[in-house]
């Protein structure tokens, strides 16, 4: 059941979360509760980050980290060469 919960699309997650909010799902069952929790997380994540694929977000993250690292090296190297 967890494999299904990991592959929720934003539309599916929204429908599951809405069903849970309306009280149509039996959340006493641990498996259903896991799926509902995953759906709610997916809805929140989609509302914050959009429904862009994770790989694209990771690419943007790594590019930002690389840019910051290059900037720090660009500041540090002249100081080290001057005072080192």
UniProtKB/TrEMBL annotation:
| UniProtKB keywords | Membrane, Transmembrane, Transmembrane helix
Positions of the region Disordered? 1-28
- Transmembrane intervals: 59-81
Quote the protein name from its UniProt record: DUF3040 domain-containing protein
Is Transmembrane given among the entry's keywords? Answer: yes
């Amino acid at each position: 059941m967890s494999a299904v919960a990991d592959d929720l699309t934003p539309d599916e997650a929204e429908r599951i979360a809405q069903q849970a909010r309306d009280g149509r799902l039996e959340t006493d069952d641990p498996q259903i509760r896991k799926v509902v929790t995953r759906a709610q997380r997916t809805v929140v994540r989609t509302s914050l980050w959009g429904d862009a694929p994770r790989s694209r977000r990771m690419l943007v993250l790594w590019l930002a980290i690389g840019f910051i690292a290059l900037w720090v090296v660009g500041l540090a190297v002249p100081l080290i060469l001057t005072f080192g």
